[in-house]
Here is the input.
Amino acid sequence: MPDGWLFDRVNRINNIRLARRIQIAIKQLGFEDFIFFNDSSMFLGLHLKELLQPRVYVYYMRDYLTKNPFWSKHGVRIEPQLIRKADVVVNNSLLYTEYGLKYNPHSYMVGQGCDVEAYNDDLQEITIAPELADLTHPVIGYVGFLSNRRLNIELLETLAEKRPEWTFVFVGPEDDDFSVSRLHQMKNVIFTGSKEPETLPGWIKGFDVCLNPQRINDATTGNYPRKIDEYLAMGKPTVASKTKAMEYFREYTYLGETAGDYLILIERAIQEDNPKLREARKKFARSHTWENNVKAIYDAILKIEPNLKN
Here is the structure.
């Protein structure tokens, strides 16, 4: 549908239909004074504040949706309208927080909730993946989907080429670009393919340095990288691309932009690693619980509706 009045009219009709269904649930539950939490639904949530009259309307941004082709056609115009209408805007990224502040002074960074208990080797004994036993150290590793849209293949090829004495291990499925990359011809590079989620902590435990070599683009610059919490929860030195979202982790990670940066930072991460740094990384990552995330959201709501404490 073309952007403009026709889309707006049909979208309002859809908002009204959704509001009616929500009102049925509100009546059945006996809600009289409620907070409405909109998780990134910019179109269907555009008119719900005036239609439902909640005590507080919260808009949550956890993705840069307007940079996605599906959302950008109408979202570039619609989302700022919704942000202005919201009583409070909460975000899991510094970039999204700054974006929200352009339209609403009550835009707050609340971080991200993560379940990192599986990566807590203080709670249970995590066994290093046996496939890592005979590899030459240092072992530099990445865990996750290997996508050329998000990860810098050329940077990784340069690292592996410049440091043949390092072993690079990539754990996870590959897209077509990764599967035909030069990395597969390098003797110091290992692709494991997909692994069961419960085995991933064992792979991370066996790495000397963890990587998140993102391309720096609209798709990555604002995204909260949950894998960083998983790396840090196990105390691992981590080298990642310097994006806006990664500023949140800057005191606990090594951030670079070029292959040259990565070479220097990986060497530095290996040299500087010590028990004190490992414990600091663990403490930081393990504070990113869902409970703390919800508390941060609630604290943001209280800034504009302090009477909710009563």
Observations:
- The chain has a mean pLDDT of 93.
- Residues 5-29 form the longest helix (25 residues).
